[in-house]
Every structure is written in C-alpha cells, then in structure tokens.
From TrEMBL:
Record organism: Dermatophagoides farinae (American house dust mite)
Protein name: Uncharacterized protein
Keywords of this entry: Membrane, Transmembrane, Transmembrane helix
Highest taxon, organism lineage: Eukaryota
Transmembrane feature ranges: 6-25
C-alpha cells in the first residue's frame, strides 16, 4: 500500500487554513492592524 504524502500535506494545509480564517473572522473587529498585516502578507 503506497502512501500519498502530498495529499496528507494538502489536508493539513486545509485544516490550518480553516482555523486561520476562523481566527481572522473572530478577531476581525478587534484588530484592524492584524488584518492589514495579513493583507500585506498575501499581496
């Protein structure tokens, strides 16, 4: 049985991303500078 590490990594990335987005939405009103930091990081 062969493993697929790429798929595993993608699943982990998705989980981290979902948690990250949830935190971002939760803290959105509280920290605007954090959102700007994220925007700078993504752009």
């Amino acid at each position: 049985m062969m493993r697929n590490p790429v798929r595993h990594v993608l699943i982990v990335q998705l989980l981290l991303y979902s948690v990250f987005v949830r935190q971002l939405i939760f803290n959105r009103r509280r920290s605007k500078e954090f959102q700007e930091l994220i925007d700078n990081f993504l752009s």
